[in-house]
Amino acid sequence: MKTVVEIINVKKRIGKKEVIHGISTKLFPGEVFGFLGPNGAGKTTMIRMMVGLTKVSEGQILINGHCITTDFEKAVRHVGGIIENPEMYKHLTGYENLRQYERLFPEKLPEDRVNEVIKLVGLEKRIHEKVKNYSLGMRQRLGIAQALLHKPSLLILDEPTNGLDPAGIREIRQYIRRIAKEEQMAVFVSSHLLSEMQLMCDKIGIIQNGNLIRVEKTETLIHSRTQEVFIDASPIEKVQELLNNYSCGKTDEGIIVRAEKEELPELIHQLSRHQVKVYEFTPLRKTLEDSFLQMTEEDQHVYTQNASK
């Protein structure tokens, strides 16, 4: 498959300190890529390098095959984005804002492109109202429309749902997924809302202390082969004895056992064979938040150990 973005061993040094340590990954058409990390992990620095606001110290960022460092204009013409909040002329209508922005492009856009992006973000009914009367969600959608005007191959969104209510968050998420598929562009999203990233993104990259510690499909991250299961059964002492070979934890309601997915049928058979009364046997679904916290805590532990040597 054609690569929209290729990040190759990218490093960033500020003074003598290296803050980004050899990051490499790829983004593809139609893919929503979520970029996660704790505060200070290097997310903003990476985004600023991708749009040319910060210089790359070492390595390459290629957008549609053009290097952001050596061929900036050709690379950046394929990029649209919203970094933090979109800025608009509030005394103008949404439509007038898009027409003003259209004038900035050196090449004339197709005559119907403005109407196309208005429809893409669902602003047809309100586009001729003044922006000062728009809700935050509507301004975010207008910002996305503005970023899409020149048909970019890469759309970069930094905290696109920041400050929105639950309905607005869901609305923006649905538009982002739809735009990625319909426009066949790569969407790079940075956000702190892990539950939303789980619903929005096809793939997740996790950055910690300037290192990209994991890049996986979202489904792979939350569906590991090791499964936690809640068991409510009686007599509880017998259950604990039978599960002695597994990693278990007792709660007031029952037992949580950790086992490989392939082991679960045998585990159920073992309980029934010994005439244990099983009232509940429920797999506990892992979330992106669980995976994120586990990986960043483990990596921070390793980082702290190495730093102390």
UniProtKB/TrEMBL annotation:
Family classification: Belongs to the ABC transporter superfamily.
Keywords (A to Z) from UniProt: ATP-binding, Nucleotide-binding, Transport
Name listed for the protein in its UniProt record: Bacitracin ABC transporter ATP-binding protein
Coiled-coil residues: none
GO molecular function, one term: ATP hydrolysis activity
InterPro entries registered for this protein in UniProt: AAA+_ATPase, ABC_transporter-like_ATP-bd, ABC_transporter-like_CS, P-loop_NTPase
ABC transporter domain mapped to chain residues: 5-234
Organism of this sequence: Jeotgalibacillus campisalis
Keyword ATP-binding: yes
